[in-house]
Recover the amino acids of this structure.
């Protein structure tokens, strides 16, 4: 019950144990095509350029930024936690002039602050985290998208933690580039990052004046492995992980997106109803709370390290500690994908009641 990886379904683990086939085997290419289609369905997009980076979420982040930014471009990066900060760091390494729009940790980015930062500017892109795993904030994106496009910029979104646990509507929200990760609400093994680019983002990629500075993440090359009439070798894909992701996506669609989102909300509510009487306090206002990542302040007398160790040693339950300024002060309790169950919530609450003696 940490901030990911979540528990994988036994069928996903079995898929991972399938005998290996070649990364250009026609059967594997068919699986890749099905993965792309299921990623499109779960991200609610028709984007042609939708595929999976053979590396974790941070590589998806880097893929979006290195392919869209060229030295000297302006990039407006929204920072309301650890992962916005990481995006700002990467954008700077791409040679972009980075303008940061910040919100206090535990709060979403205020669209008015973005509007103010964009006034008089024509940045190449605005980047923002949809589900900030370090703070438990769900960032509403509709207004952010409207403001970004009015300024003529592309919208880049981090959906590592929200994907498959809360709605991510790429086309309806006019998101131009988005990346996620396999290990959170999809409940597949870590190490893969789905990425999608809108036609507007593909145009920006096609109109680059300079080469993408990363060879491995250069979409002008990788896309020929994931699509097109002549599929060509680019790198040796992690075949077993892709097979596991295929099965995890199939299970998501079998459950149904709406059912899955409801399950995440209901288990979050069950956890909240049990934690608050024990003295835990949610740090995020109710309308911005992530259902899959519950950030709570510890009650007086509950020592972070001691209680987390006891939970692990005595009850076999892992919860995440706070990052940055929140280290030692909060817990991050994950209810992601397969780990989002009433059974998990009740086991944690029983353990806490025993430890706190209530
Ligand atoms: C919001 C967010 N973005 C990016 C990442 C980076 O993903 P990874 O650790 O898979 O590289 C994480 C990981 O926890 C995350 O929570």
């Amino acid at each position: 019950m940490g901030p990911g990886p979540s528990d994988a379904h036994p069928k996903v683990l079995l898929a991972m144990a399938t005998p290996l086939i070649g990364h250009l085997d026609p059967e594997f290419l068919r699986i890749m095509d099905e993965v792309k289609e299921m990623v499109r369905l779960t991200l609610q997009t028709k984007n042609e350029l939708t595929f999976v980076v053979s590396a974790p979420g941070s590589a998806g982040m880097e893929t979006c930024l290195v392919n869209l930014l060229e030295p000297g471009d302006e990039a407006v990066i929204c920072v309301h936690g650890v992962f916005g900060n990481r995006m700002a760091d990467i954008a700077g390494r791409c040679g972009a002039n980075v303008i940061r729009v910040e919100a206090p940790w535990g709060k979403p980015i205020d669209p008015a602050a973005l509007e103010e930062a964009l006034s008089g500017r024509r940045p190449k892109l605005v980047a923002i985290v949809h589900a900030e795993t370090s703070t438990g904030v769900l960032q509403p994106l509709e207004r952010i998208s409207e403001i970004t496009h009015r300024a003529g910029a592309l919208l880049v979104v981090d959906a590592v933690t929200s994907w498959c646990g809360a709605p991510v509507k790429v086309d309806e929200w006019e998101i131009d580039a988005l990346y996620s990760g396999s290990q959170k609400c999809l409940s597949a093994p870590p190490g893969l990052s789905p990425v999608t680019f809108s036609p507007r983002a593909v145009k920006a990629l096609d109109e680059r004046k300079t080469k993408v500075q990363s060879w491995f993440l250069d979409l002008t090359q990788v896309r020929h492995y994931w699509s097109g009439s002549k599929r060509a070798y680019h790198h040796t894909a992690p075949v077993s992980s892709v097979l596991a992701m295929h099965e995890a996506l199939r299970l998501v669609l079998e459950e149904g997106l709406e059912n899955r989102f409801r399950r995440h909300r209901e288990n979050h509510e069950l956890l909240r109803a049990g934690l608050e009487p024990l003295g835990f306090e949610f740090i995020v206002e109710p309308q911005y709370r992530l259902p899959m990542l519950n950030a709570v302040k510890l009650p007086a007398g509950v020592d972070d390290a001691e209680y987390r160790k006891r939970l692990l040693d005595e009850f076999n339950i892992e919860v995440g500690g706070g990052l940055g300024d929140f280290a030692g002060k909060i817990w991050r309790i994950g209810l992601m994908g397969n780990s989002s169950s009433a059974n998990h919530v009740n086991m944690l609450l029983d353990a806490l009641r025993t430890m706190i003696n209530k």
Observations:
- The chain has two domains: 10-253, 256-356.
- The domain at 256-356 is CATH 3.90.1150.10 (Aspartate Aminotransferase, domain 1).
- The CA atoms of residues 68 and 118 lie 18 Å apart.
- The longest helix spans residues 257-275.
